[in-house]
Write a structure and sequence with these properties.
Nucleotidyltransferase, domain 5, 11 helices, binds zinc ion, 2 domains, 13 strands, five-stranded mixed sheet
Length: 302
Amino acid sequence: MSAGVRVGVDVGGSTTEAVALNGAGSVIARHERATIPGAAGVTGGIIAAIEAVSADDVISSIGIGVPGRVADGHVHDAVNLGISEADLSGPVAARFAAAVHLENDVRAATRGIGRQKQIASLAYLNLGTGVAAGVLVDGRVNGGSRGVAGEIGHLSIDPAGPVCACGQRGCIEAFAGGGAIAQRTGGGPFAVRDAFDRADDGDPAAREVVSGVARGAAAAIRTLALAVDPERIVIGGGIARLGDRLLAPVIGELERAANGSAFLGSLRLAARIELLPRGVPIGAIGAALSDARSAAIGVGAG
Ligand SMILES: [Zn+2]
């Protein structure tokens, strides 16, 4: 067993959370702080969070999950962090003299969920500002050959649907992404929750938004099930905080499709989905487990 702690950091738009894991993979320290947007603020927050959880311990590895596209230790297009491009791993590696692995936050969370639930086959569907998924196969997160594995938000499900930021029409993300909905409805950060509230009051335009969210989420779930056949499909992200208010229309949509197709019915999709448990630092734990020596979560076939 290697000496030292493995540190994981999950950088979100509002908070930065860090954990330290001991040799057995148990969380021995946890810290949360407000994220300061911009490259300098984000980097400073990561370093402060690592200092808080590692104290005087030797650090054997550092994993960092960030919302955005990651290549060669740099993050790109992290809109929620106010960063268009930044080297987040170099300054952290220099400060702590430890190997740093930077990756997309949805992938890190996928690994963390696998560890927490002790399952080696799962998909994580993140319904937030955007829509993306992580896939765990045989206990390993699949990144793909070009780093876009899981970007199912840009699968078009309706050629006559709303225009997406990516240039296509009717993407899953255009229906079920918080950013697209806020833009279309002129709402703020709570546009999706507002739409669910107004739909409950019978507002027809809001009902259309809600049915679009359900339609987009159900399409994402079908896509994940058909592409990778995971044991569980876990739904998280800002929109998932609606809880059963989200799950009910999504299950309704899955069951409607299943009623029209014996094949879809046989997949038992509604029984395979669940909401991400709250209060567990899954993204930070997954990031801590991301170093090359332990890329697999340690369950299932290996
Ligand atoms: Zn798109």
